What we know:
- By secondary structure, the protein is α+β, with helices and mostly antiparallel strands.
- It has three domains: 4-63, CATH 2.40.50.140; 66-138, 5' to 3' exonuclease, C-terminal subdomain (DNA polymerase, domain 1), CATH 1.10.150.20; 150-191, Ubiquitin-associated (UBA) domain (Helicase, Ruva Protein, domain 3, Orthogonal Bundle).
- It has ten helices and five strands, in the order E-E-E-H-E-E-H-H-H-H-H-H-H-H-H.
- The protein has helices spanning 32-35, 66-76, 83-92, 95-104, 107-110, 118-128, 132-141, 151-161, 166-173, 183-191; strands at residues 4-13, 16-21, 24-29, 44-53, 58-63.
- It has a five-stranded mixed beta barrel with strand order 1-2-3-5-4.
- A hairpin with a 2-residue loop joins strand 2 and strand 3 (24-29).
- Helix 4 runs antiparallel to helix 7 and helix 8 packs across helix 10.
- The longest helix has 11 residues, at 66-76.
- Mean pLDDT is 83; it is low at 141-149.
Amino acid sequence: MIGFVRGKLVIKAPPHLTVDVGGVGYDIEAPMSTFYTLPAVGSEVRLLTHLVVREDAHILYGFGTQEERALFRNLLKVSQIGPKIALAILSGVSVDGFTNLVKLQDPASLTKIPGVGRKTAERVLMEMKDRLDKLEEASVSGAMPMTPSSTEGEAWTALVALGYKPAEVTAMLKPLAGQGGSTEDLIRRALQGTVRPQ
Length: 198
C-alpha cells in the first residue's frame, strides 16, 4: 500500500493530478476539497493516498488531510459505494458537513451531490451512523497541515511514526504552532514532558 506521495505537482486538472516523485509521475485522482488546497503547478506537494486495485486498473486516490482519507475509506465500506461516488461525496460536502448530515440523517442534502440518488443517500447515512466515532477521531488528527513546507506537518508525521496516537500528536503540537524553528526543534519541544509510547 502506498501511504503518501511527495514530489512536484506537474498536472492539475480536476479530478486528476500528476505528481513527479523522483522522475516517476504518479497519476492521482482527488476530491475537490483537496484541489482547493493544492499549491501552484511546479510546487512541491505531499498527499496522503489510498490505492484501489481493480481487475483492469490500479487507481491511486490522493487527499490533503487524514480526515478526508478516513471518510473516503469508510465510504468504500458502505455496500454498493465505489470510489467514484465516494469521491463525489467528498467533493460535494466537507468532512464536518458530512458528519452533521449523518447525525441529522438528512438524505435530501446528500442527494444534491451529482450521482447520489435517494436510496444511495439513505444507505450511506444509515451505514455511516456506526462509524461516526472513527470519523471524528480522524477529524481531530487531521488538523495538522500535510504540506511538506510545513514544519508542523513534518513533525506531526514523525511523531505518529514514533508510535503516538494522531490525536495525542495534535494536542502536543498545538501549543507550539507558529513558534518557528526546524522540524527537529519542534519534535524535541513536543516530546519534553511526554512519555514515550510502549
